[in-house]
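Reopening: PorT family protein still failing for me.
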Amino acid sequence: MKKTHLITFALLLFAMNTQAQLLQIGAKAGLNYANFSGTEIQTDAITSYHAGLIAEVKLLDKFAIQPELLYTTQGATYKTALGDVKNELGYIAIPVLAKIYLSKSFSLELGPQASFLLSEKDKFNVNDANTFDFAVDAGLSFKITKSLFIQGRYVLGLTEVSTNADAKNSVLQFSAGLMF
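Support: Ran it again with your exact input. Result attached.
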């Protein structure tokens, strides 16, 4: 009877350890260098931020899926007859990335991102903002320790930010994070 309990307990611990290696949860934050691309209007980049939750689901030894839930601010500044206008867009972004490990520390991240507009500061025209943004992300990640990492990523917007303009989001992101 004691052996059965001991074996059951050992198998349970093994299963929990295996599960913990397959799924990691964490948080990250960082800087955005954002601008609009594909527009005829001369725009300048803004420096903003992003922060949120991250998960890593290990599927193979060198492959994982990395879904994220981020709050991110993007946009640009541009000149008008009334002066400079800074258009800052606040999104909830959901990237789902394929994570390919190039070594134990370095990984390549590629995948789609869906974003939902929450706020728009210093808006130029309140009636024309698109509330959904679709993008493609690509970047590199480096594990400093088992828990601490840094990332660099480019987010290329594929949909227009506005119904009245050809501008798309273009964001360079630098992040640091912690896996629990």
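The chain has one helix and nine strands. If you still see a failure, please send the error message rather than a screenshot.
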